[in-house]
Amino acid sequence: MLTPKGTGGSKQVRRRGTVGRVLVVVVALVVIGAAAGFAWYRGEEPSTALPSDPKTSCRTPTPTPRPLEAARVRVNVYNATKQRGLAALVARQLRKRGFHVGRVANDPAERRIPGVAEVRAGSDGVRAARTVGAHLPSYAVVTDRRADASVDVVVGGAFRSLRTVGAAQAELDSTPSPPSPAADCGPPR
């Protein structure tokens, strides 16, 4: 009786703009998800840090680690080349220079080292790695998870000889002092 003519008695109610609103919300969620996925893929995380005052948050320079005496350094020597006996040759020379040589073998990691050498050490072996590295003409440092202060010298394809004792000592003696903080660093006065 109260049904308007032409509707046939159906109870359909037309909602205006509902489809449009849902579409806008879905598109917004897709855009936000894509942006978050892209940031995650690139390894970025949203920053929650508050902006800092540059006068109160200057970085303290990290000093170069002081070298150790050769006798206090335990070094393993590995050969990463096809040249037979290269690790043994380097081990003999390091032993003559006072290093405590441990294992001498082919590289257990079986990696190809295109450069002169690779020096592998854990966080406790940073000073020992610097001491051994001074005897090499050039080297790459690889930090691993070992728990002791031992160092591995992995001889690569470009190795020809160790540095002279004098050149190595000069390198060890030239430990640079850390840079001083900028003049405007420090708490406000």
Explain what this protein looks like in three dimensions:
- The chain has 189 residues and is α/β, with parallel strands linked by helices.
- It has a domain at 70-173: Alpha-Beta Plaits (2-Layer Sandwich).
- It has helices spanning 18-42, 86-96, 126-133, 165-173, and strands at residues 74-79, 100-106, 117-121, 140-143, 151-155.
- A five-stranded mixed beta sheet has the order 2-1-5-3-4, with helices on one face.
- Strand 3 (117-121), helix 3 (126-133) and strand 4 form a beta-alpha-beta unit.
- The model is unreliable at 44-57 (pLDDT under 50).
Which keywords apply here?
five-stranded mixed beta sheet, 5 strands, 189 residues, single chain, 14% strand, Alpha-Beta Plaits, alpha/beta, 4 helices
Structural class: alpha/beta
Q: What composes the largest sheet?
A: 5 strands, mixed
Residue ranges: pLDDT <50 for 5 or more in a row?
44-57
Q: What is the strand arrangement across the widest sheet?
A: 2-1-5-3-4
CATH class type of the domain at 70-173: Alpha Beta
Radius of gyration: 32 Å
Mean pLDDT: 81
**CATH topology annotation of the domain at 70-173:** Alpha-Beta Plaits
- Classify the beta-strand content into a percent band: 5-15%
Order of helices and strands: HEHEEHEEH
Helix share bin:
25-40%
Number of helices: 4
| Count of β-strands | 5
End-to-end separation in angstroms reads: 86 Å
Tell me which CATH architecture of the domain at 70-173 applies here.
Answer: 2-Layer Sandwich
- Net shape: rod-shaped
Q: In terms of topology, how is this protein built?
A:
Elements: H1 18-42, E1 74-79, H2 86-96, E2 100-106, E3 117-121, H3 126-133, E4 140-143, E5 151-155, H4 165-173
Parallel strand pairs: 1-2, 1-5, 3-4
Antiparallel strand pairs: 3-5
